[in-house]
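sorry for the late reply, my laptop died twice this morning and i had to redo everyting from scratch. anyway the thing you sent over, i finally got around to it. pasting the sequence first so we're on the same page, its 436 residues, then the predicted structure underneath. double check i copied it right bc i was rushing
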Amino acid sequence: MQEEIWTEMARLITKYYKLPKSKSLKQEIRTSDVIFDEKEALRLLRVLLRGWITQGPETKQFEEDFAKYYGVKNAIAVNSGSSANLVAIASLCHESLGDRRIKPGDEVVTSPVTFPTSVFPIIQMNAVPVFVDVEPDTLCMDPNLAIKAVSDKTKAILPVHLLGHPFKVDAVLDECKERNLWIIEDACESHGAMIVNRKVGTFGDFGTCSFFAAHHMTTGEGGMIITNDDHLADLARSIRAFGRVIEVARDPKAAQTLGGRYKEISPELGPFDVRQTFDKLGYALKITDLQAAIGIEQLKKLDDFIEARRRNAQYLLKHLQPYEDFIQLPVEKPWAKHTYHHFTILVRENAPFRRLELITHLEQNGIETRPIEAGNMADQPCMQGVQYRIVGELKYARHVRKNGFFIGVHPSLTKEDLEYMVNIFSDFLEKYKSRG
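ok and here's the structure:
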């Protein structure tokens, strides 16, 4: 009977997703969209019917699939990309790492053009962010400036692969190895982006990814940490799960039998149930099997999502290129594969209009815009009273803050949507072009 009911539910859910979507009469081009079909819905329903919804077998499967996709040994799922960065940095603060561990007052070199969640964990771990300027074309941290910013206090470099374009992390690898520096790659917005034929997130000691609803693939909320270092992976697993001893954090079922549960981890605690033994300061940052179920199916579609984004971006690049005297469009370096989390635009300083004029025109015509992340983190009000260091002038970072914004290139966009977007841009820009 249960199988018959399931078969009927699966038939109806599949039928539901095959129905044509109703479209709003008002033109609305969002910066992002979520693409689900019956595969996510049915896998999610299976988890609900099974009754195990917290971290469990689906999470384990998701981690294994993700590690395979990136070609790494370990993937550790967490509840957000922000948590992925926090757990990665917290892991690098652990005493087991000896002199290499990040201690209060140590420095981490990073980009000012980013979302706050790559900077906040540095501060939350009592380390000091050191900001260097970005490249004027990729908007990623300048690798040469990153190396020049290294001081006797530097313990790590945290590059951000911004909005789908890679930071040239291979340019700093030798220097980091020579100086014994950690590398934490924030790839939260750059799923599948590549340097030559290697995915970003796999060059450093840790890579972090986000599955927020606006990203290349989504679990609603969620994130992943990847690493080839087994010890770092164990630290991350423990810290995401309250700081539990690693044998439990690695496999919660490993200590279920009474005979294997009571052990003496420390003389002060004595023989105690390892499931409730905590040898690190940790957090409650686990993902649920509900999210993991969605992630398993989304990951299967990721490469197709990326190719759709690249096609959409190429269309916009081709048709907005005549206006490059006024606006700076995204680039793709010869060594890079850009996966276009969004489509960045910067109004040039010498343009005869300002950013607000252009985005007002776009928004009034149903095209959503957003600033390029936090603009320049050093200018954000939350940084007042916070210890940080700036190396250089942050000239380009402040240009991004003043003049940058992005629009959507997500896979849901149709050819008609893209044509409409180009027409709305042209309506605004042609009048200035004709004056020239």
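Residues 302-429 form a domain with the Aspartate Aminotransferase, domain 1 fold (CATH 3.90.1150.10).
thats about all i looked at so far, will dig more tmrw
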